[in-house]
Design goal:
Blueprint (H helix, E strand, L loop, with lengths): L1 E9 L3 H15 L4 E2 L3 E3 L10 E10 L3 H14 L15 E7 L4 E3 L2 E3 L3 H4 L1 H10 L12 H6 L8 E3 L2 E3 L2 E4 L3
Length: 172
């Protein structure tokens, strides 16, 4: 079993789509752990509502390609249209961040995902969920990387969120 991390985001009917994604993850991969849910302003475009973002970790025997196909199917099941512009509102966005310690272009997916080091909405929840885990490429822990993160143009904050009767997130 390989440890997998994914980022989850939505800015259209956010609660419904994040809950649907978490349910799909829990149904497919029984040991899912999730970070707090953060609200963030859109990065890269201004025409859009704020996002909900979080990170999930689980273990799987699926290949990178199979995991990517699974993610894209859950997105499609939640109304995400294939080929939609990169910087546009979305019902659900699920991105593979890491699959074990694999690095490089694997089965059509770049691992680890670049966004880990460049976007607060990925690094902060990842650092909270797996603080001591080293980034597969740079070898430093996510907590260290978050402590040194300097892109102050990205605003995000934790929000109240409940999943399956359990509070997984509270405002700061």
């Amino acid at each position: 079993m390989t440890q997998v991390t994914v980022s989850i985001g939505s800015n259209i009917d956010r609660d419904r789509h994040v809950l649907a994604c978490l349910d799909a993850l829990a149904d497919a991969f029984k040991d899912v752990q999730v970070s707090r849910v953060f609200e963030s302003e859109p990065v890269g475009f201004e025409d859009g509502r704020n996002f909900y973002n979080l990170v999930a970790v689980f273990h799987s025997t699926l290949t990178v390609g199979e995991l990517q196909t699974w993610c894209k199917q859950v997105e499609a099941d939640n109304g995400r249209l294939p080929g939609s512009p990169k910087f546009s509102p979305r019902t659900l966005d699920i991105d593979l961040l890491t699959v074990g310690d694999q690095c490089g272009h694997i089965e059509g997916v770049d691992l680890p995902r670049d966004e880990i080091l460049h976007h607060a909405f990925v690094l902060w929840p990842l650092a909270e969920l797996l603080p001591e885990t080293p980034h597969p490429e740079v070898g430093r822990s996510y907590a260290e990387l978050w402590a040194e993160f300097t892109n102050g143009d990205q605003y995000l904050w934790p929000v109240a969120f409940t999943w399956r009767g359990r509070t997984i997130s509270r405002p700061a």
